[in-house]
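User: Here's a structure from my thesis project, written as structure tokens. My advisor, Dr. K., wants to see whether a designed sequence matches the one we expressed. Can you design one independently, without my sequence as a hint?
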């Protein structure tokens, strides 16, 4: 393993990012504000992150020689999405510090592995069972209550992709057959709402968490985030405890997003982990003293974390597909901050940007 001693990077150092999407773009701009250079490694010829980076390597994540050359050009490596091949992160971790470490990817890339890990910490999840065949899906559906469930691919699902809601054992079997990949069957639960918490852990082990927020989805994609959560103030302390336990168990360095279900009795169940900056943390860019992106850069660079302080209420709205064509309207709103990702093709279902609407502290309507 590469030396990962907590020596802060000096301004002018180069941070390598695996992935070139909008999260990488916002990480790059946050890093530039702190005096760092960004080198993006991505298979695409153009990408939102590479447009604002100092350097760009175009190669496949399995290209060992390209990865070695990339590692030699940077001082620390991070990633902006969790589907980077785990073996890629392992290889790089032998050359330069990779933060968060490969263990976080290994856990988050497989939904069964992820839930097993969360439960090993004594933290609750929805009931679940692995299913690689139609017969296993039928058995899992029946074992989970036989009323309703969600069949999901174990790997590579996001924004509602690779998921099928089912209400019978035969439908569960058909879903696994159609998805044609190992799946997880999750039993339906009666929850009050969905919240998430974005937290960071530094090299020194210090943890800082932003306020839990409430998330509303549309067509399987995050539509709006309300900061702070309007569901209940009660689960806040428990959300912070859960995030802290996960960060410690993974020996994590950087920002993580933890999605949670709020049950009718106020208890929390973990839905998913995101070992990176998270869509539901975009509100921090305008409503806090530090954004999730700056906090992540601080963590992986070995800088002190800032206390995560919210100084305004906020509603973050994703601009999906053609929503972005209304940019003039959003730009004219006096208490709104518009963030566009530089994507040229406003396809349906594609995240093109977001708008943060600010309100007085504890005064959101």
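Assistant: Designed independently from the structure alone:
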């Amino acid at each position: 393993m590469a030396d990962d001693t907590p020596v802060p990077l000096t301004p002018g150092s180069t941070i390598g990012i695996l992935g070139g999407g909008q999260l990488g773009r916002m990480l790059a701009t946050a890093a530039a504000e702190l005096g760092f250079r960004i080198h993006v490694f991505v298979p695409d010829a153009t990408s939102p992150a590479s447009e604002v980076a100092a350097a760009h390597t175009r190669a496949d994540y399995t290209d060992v020689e390209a990865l070695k050359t990339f590692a030699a050009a940077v001082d620390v490596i991070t990633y902006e999405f969790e589907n980077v091949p785990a073996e890629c992160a392992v290889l790089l971790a032998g050359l330069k510090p990779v933060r968060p470490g490969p263990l976080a990817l290994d856990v988050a890339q497989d939904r069964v592995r992820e839930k097993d890990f969360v439960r090993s910490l004594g933290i609750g999840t929805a009931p679940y069972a692995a299913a690689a065949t139609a017969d296993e899906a039928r058995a899992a559906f029946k074992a989970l209550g036989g009323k309703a469930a969600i069949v999901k691919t174990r790997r590579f699902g996001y924004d509602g992709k690779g998921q099928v809601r089912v209400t019978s054992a035969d439908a569960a079997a058909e879903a696994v057959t159609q998805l044609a990949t190992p799946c997880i069957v999750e039993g339906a639960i009666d929850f009050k709402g969905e919240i998430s918490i974005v937290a960071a852990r530094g090299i020194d082990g210090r943890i800082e968490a932003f306020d839990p927020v409430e998330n509303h989805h549309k067509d399987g994609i995050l539509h709006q985030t309300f900061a702070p959560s309007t569901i209940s103030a009660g689960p806040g302390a428990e959300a912070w405890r859960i995030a802290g336990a996960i960060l410690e168990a993974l020996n994590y360095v950087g920002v993580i997003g933890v999605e949670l279900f709020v049950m009718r009795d106020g208890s929390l169940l973990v839905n998913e982990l995101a070992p990176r900056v998270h869509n539901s943390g975009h509100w921090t860019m305008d409503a806090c003293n530090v954004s999730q992106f700056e906090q992540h850069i601080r963590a992986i660079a070995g800088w002190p974390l800032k206390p995560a302080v919210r100084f305004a209420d906020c509603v973050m709205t994703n601009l999906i597909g053609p929503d972005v064509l209304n940019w003039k309207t959003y730009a004219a709103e006096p208490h709104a901050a518009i963030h566009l990702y530089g994507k040229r093709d406003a396809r349906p279902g594609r995240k093109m940007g977001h708008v943060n609407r600010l309100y007085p502290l504890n005064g959101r309507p």
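When you compare it with your expressed construct, this may help: The chain is about 30% helix and 30% strand.
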